[in-house]
Design brief:
The chain is elongated. By secondary structure, it is an alpha+beta fold. A hairpin with an 8-residue loop joins strand 3 and strand 4. The chain has 8 helices and 5 strands. About 10% of the residues are buried. It has a 5-stranded antiparallel beta sheet.
Length: about 190
């Protein structure tokens, strides 16, 4: 019938819109069972949506161990007055050796009596942003000659900066300093 055809067209438009978004959209039941997860999860994490439907624990299994307390806020925040919040944590993609940073924008959906109906969210890959922030911090340390953490407790050292941050130095200048240190019997470490 024409009504069914209109519903199919609307469903196809919705599916196309969801699949074209780079982020991962999900819905989880109060008990932790995945109710919906967009196909983009496979691009981000290497797992098919069906794998999340089969295992309620899969998400917890791919979390970085240090970030489990952050992730646990999805449950503990249910008692707070706000139903919207953001978490940032690391997850390990399937078959990969390094973690990806994600921002989890969480929203609780509640019944009229306040009971939790579902946890909805949008997961965004923020790994590039985290790496850029770390590089900026390192750059600021170089600009201010902040070398805290460069030497172990009990060690004495001198930091030497060649060139200027963002501009660099010629290798021949670095080589001259390294050779002078070696000829004087002084150990060094390039950072």
């Amino acid at each position: 019938s024409q009504g069914h055809a209109l519903v199919r067209v609307a469903e196809e438009r919705y599916r196309s819109a969801v699949e074209s978004i780079a982020d991962v959209i999900y819905q989880v039941a109060p008990g932790g069972q995945m109710q919906f997860i967009s196909p983009n999860v496979q691009r981000l994490l290497g797992y098919a949506p069906e794998e999340f439907f089969r295992s309620a624990d899969l998400w917890r299994m791919i979390l970085h161990p240090d970030d489990r307390p952050v992730y646990a806020q999805r449950i503990s925040n249910q008692a707070l007055p706000s139903d919207d919040f953001h978490l940032e944590y690391r997850v390990l993609p399937k078959g990969k050796a390094s973690y990806r940073w994600v921002r989890d924008s969480v929203r609780y959906v509640r019944a009229e009596d306040g009971g939790l109906l579902s946890i909805n969210g949008i997961l965004s890959d923020i790994s590039d942003r985290i790496e850029l922030e770390a590089a900026l911090i390192k750059s600021e340390e170089m600009k201010t000659n902040d070398v805290k953490g460069s030497f172990l407790p009990g060690e004495v050292g001198v930091g030497v900066e060649l060139g200027r941050p963002g501009i660099g130095a010629y290798f021949r200048d670095v080589e001259k300093v390294a050779m002078a240190l070696l000829s004087a019997g002084i150990g060094y470490q390039l950072a």
